[in-house]
Amino acid sequence: MVLAMARPWKHPTTGSYYARKAVPAPLREAVGKSELKESLGTKDPAEARQRFPDVIARFDLLLASAAARSGAQQGRPMRLTQRQLAGLGGEWLRAELARHEDDPGQPAAWDATFDALWDKLDDNREAHPGDLDFTPTPADLAEAEALIRERGIAPDTETVERFASVLLGAKLDVARIMVRRAGGDWSPAPEVAQRPVWQPLAPQPPAAPALTVAALVSAYERENPHQPQRTRDRRAACVRALVAAAGHDDATRIGKAEIRAWKEVRLGAGVAPKTVATDLTILSPAWSYGIKNGHLPDGPNPFSGMAPKVPKRDENSRTGFTDEEAAAILAAARHETGALRWLPWLLALTGARVGEASDAAKEDVRQVDGVWCLDIHPSPGRRLKNAHSQRRTPLHSALIAEGFLNYVEGLPAGSPLFPDLRVGKAGTRSEAASTRLSEWLRDKLKITDRRKVGAHSWRHRMEDMMRRARIPTEAADAIVGHENPRNAGSGYGDGFRAWPGELAKELEKVASPLGSTRD
Length: 519
Known about the structure:
Residues 14-65 form the DUF6538 domain. This protein is mostly helical.
């Protein structure tokens, strides 16, 4: 039983009122929270009491949706075929005609019924209703599911949604026929004849899924072993939540309906759209792998297009350091040691990702065709974002003049480039590097703009500096390790990545934030 708060809750510190509702234990994994809570946007108790019922009603709908799709239902959910759904819709249509046909009433009343049903269609109203988009309401879905369950069938989510559309079409046909009957036309209705007869189904015993979601993901990860442990852990949590929301563990029956149900439960629980989008993105490659390798039926990836739209840039988006900030940071780094001394300079003048630099080894700083480079490649202690991340980025002359090579030479053979950074749970130093740089930036340099972080803001700045210097796009992509799908020609020939000397010439067009000489 779900226990709801009987009245708004007043926050002890702010004085603002909230609506709160406990999430039943069986639904917590699907919802992602143990409690639903939302501000009522007021400190006035009377106004809070007014707003409270609407929010609680929305919470109730969310929990009902999660419960309907959870694993609590007995037996394996069944997916009906298109013919079966059409037959079930035909049975309903014939029953409705039997109720009304002998005494149809006035045509105007049935016209009004038809118009009200037609208004539920989304668009394209000149086409046949079967071709129209229809977004069922919770009431439509509940009616459709109830009619299917009356036949002793436990339907899956997609079957319910498809039958809701079939049922709307049947209702429109009933209204059409009854308009004719009310006008004196008693000829046989083609709308009835074109529907198949419903054939009751024999009970089916529960069956184990041919391929569980966990097994599919495990197979995908075996072929893609070079992934951070934190990514694997997050994917495992997503698998558990998806299975809970879908109500089954059969990977072959995970479609857009199940994915949408999981998404809506998460968004309804107040999870940020960006987080939900990331969770969907982290599972999508496993389904692409399954389709490509024959584990799943041929067809489009059901995750395609399902992620919530997230603006690429908003008020909290990362941004690059200004010229003044960059100069201040590099000047302050001269008074530090270890990673704080050299990591800001390396990031500032290569545009590398923090993990690409922090997880490098002494031997990764080497000469290629006479040019000093940072050799960025996958290794047990360094995982790259993608294949395009592997590259040899030239070292800027300002970095060499600063004494970086002397620092590298002083490290023992086989040493990490920054041995003072601790190795985290994921087996890398990037988390420690990001934390140390961010704290140093905030505490010592007083750069508190949340859009600017000690690691990635250098990468944003390098992109802007290369644009300002008019560096060719292909060269810029080779420097920072980007893929440019819009530049089809970059896939031909060896390109700038094979010419460190040419790449070094382009990189030198980017000026050091502190100029060419030391202060």
